[in-house]
Amino acid sequence: MLKIESLSKSYDKGKSFALRDVSFQLGEGDVFAIVGESGSGKTTLIRLIAGLETPDTGTIEINEKLVSSIKKNVAAEKRNIGFVFQEYALFPHLKLEENILYGISKLKNKKQRAKEVLELVGLSEMKDRYPHQLSGGQQQRVALARALAPNPSLLILDEPFSNLDAMLRAQLRNEIFRIIKQSGVTAIFVTHDTQDALAVADEILILQNGKLVQKDAAANLYTKPSSVYVASLFGNTIQLSKELQSAFECPLKTDCCHAIRNENIAINDECDYVTNATVLKKTFLGSGTQLLIKLDNGEHLTVVTKHTHIDERITIGFNSKDVLEFKE
Ligand code: ADP
Ligand code: MG
Known about the structure:
By secondary structure, this protein is an alpha+beta fold. It folds into 2 domains: 2-233, Rossmann fold, CATH 3.40.50.300; 237-327, CATH 2.40.50.140. It has helices at residues 42-50, 96-102, 110-120, 136-148, 166-183, 194-200, 218-223, 228-233, 242-247; strands spanning 2-9, 19-26, 31-35, 57-62, 65-68, 81-84, 154-158, 186-191, 203-208, 211-217, 237-239, 256-261, 266-267, 273-284, 289-295, 300-305, 313-318, 324-327. Strand 9 and strand 10 (211-217) form a beta hairpin. The mean pLDDT is 92. It binds adenosine-5'-diphosphate and magnesium ion. Residues 42-43 line the site of magnesium ion. One of its GO terms (molecular function) is ABC-type ferric iron transporter activity. Residues 2-234 form the ABC transporter domain. InterPro entries: AAA+_ATPase, ABC_SmlMolc_Importer, ABC_transporter-like_ATP-bd, ABC_transporter-like_CS, ABC_transpr_FbpC, Mo/tungstate-bd_C_term_dom, P-loop_NTPase, Transp-assoc_OB_typ2. Keywords: ATP-binding, Cell membrane, Ion transport, Iron, Iron transport, Membrane, Nucleotide-binding, Transport.
């Protein structure tokens, strides 16, 4: 339903690019996440899709209709895209129901539609409240209801949970995911939090310095990351340098680069490659212990283990099946 080709955007006349030669396609009815560090171009990409910016090169098609090119630019309000922002952007002087009616004033059965979406987000009983009489999570659900009310063909959420604390965040994330799936709308969900992305997205797009570096199903991103960078986004990763390879006596291909995930490191356990080490420092983390380790060949490593009782001398190792390999 969304087709993007060779999309680029520079804010300084080509000196630097916020987005560089990005191409991808999205199917209908799924939830997609765009993940990247701050400044990687996430907001630029979705603003281009929404028609709030114009591209320097490339094209955007929505439902096989060209909406953006160098020559053509369909206005944002004609693209039928719903938007949920980080800050809820509700009108403070309007009650919940009025906030929702505002965006569908031309609809024939607008009252009925407002009722439906308020039900969908579970806030029917609060329709006469003002935004300040709601919690942050409830306000975000109203913002979602408002975006869904006109039946958009695409829903875009830009960092929708950044303003919420951790507990509420996980709860609201699941709730919003349920609502999106129930409404059947295609959704793009922007986040810098990989846990959020893994929890809700069928497919994830990774942006790095304005480039699309991988687009894949969540599980594939974890097991088959395209680079050390992508691997490290989904948990602590240790790059297997030449020195580490020699310490573990695991010679690997020289034209590739390799890494191992922290969770695949075994302490005091049998595995394919093992070496002896001394624990220099232990930090209690609650769910586990962080260890600063000096291998017997002199290399230092930091790993997190579930063990709580660790002697000063340990063995550390990993299995060959868990080694990630990248062509650099
Ligand atoms: P993200 O949403 O991933 O944090 P952005 O798309 O906001 O990234 O920004 C990508 C790059 O473009 C950054 O280097 C940012 O400073 C720059 N940028 C974004 N918006 C503007 C703008 N309106 N004017 C100039 N530079 C911008
Ligand atoms: Mg942003």
